[in-house]
Request: fold
Amino acid sequence: MPPHALTPIPLLEADPDLGRLLPPDRAAEALQGLTARRHAVPAGPWADPRLERAPSDHLGLLLLDGLVAYETAMEDTVSTHLLGPGDIVRPWQTADPGRLLLAQRRWTVLAPAEMAVLDARLGASMCRFPEVQAMIVDRLAEQMQRMAVAQAIGRLTGVDRRLLALFWHLAERWGRVAPQGVQVPLALAHGVLADLVGARRPTVSTALGKLAASGELLRLTDGSWLLTGEPVGEPTGDAARIIRRRRRRPAPLHLVPQWTSTADGAAAAAASGSSTGGGLSLGNNGVAMSNATTTSANAHQ
Reply:
């Protein structure tokens, strides 16, 4: 690593927004009392062996600059989530031993990154400043909201619609106003875009050509992107009416009071006179299972 990779830096100097909730006198105290270490990561696959040895009581790494891709590989599909300045990551987090769905994860630094190490020492010092802790939680909540939006984008019909929604989503963080529209200064390859929207690379290339022909999304000579027109995403017309109707009639969810075997669950259902058999139970191999309901569709109308 370069010599400057682990240099001390005041946390609120590296990320002033974390002190937004502090009154002036406490902000000055926090500026002196909260010191992180700056860690530089070059572009490329991020597989630093020191991450595997990081103590579990470290809070995480706060991205200060750069662009990082968190990728989840499952069978023949890769799903990618982009992380940038202000996001908090824990690359050393061990996998849950009780996890049933097997997938690989990997980190790739798309643009040289700088991070602040939020170690256990800094975490203890942060206890004196709950306002900063609240901002940390707020950052994590924002990351969850962005992931929910990304999931919704991946469910849009038409890869061209997904790409257009994705770029407006990215513009919220990285976009800047240009004379012809909103410029997104991220040089994202077609393969990365395919992983972001849940599509194949050739399909993404075709969809980008369609958006360029319509003038809605253009690739600039420096590799960045230009959005024209108005932001998309808000349900309108028939789509809005359908979504409201779905929310008025949520599907019922039945849960058994405790984990039981399928045989015990059937006996309990028979004893209670239940005709649905709905709920969750453990199968013979110990895997969580959902018992199919037998309630007719007419019962929900």
About this structure: The chain has ten helices and 13 strands. The longest strand covers residues 60-74. Residues 130-154 form the longest helix (25 residues).
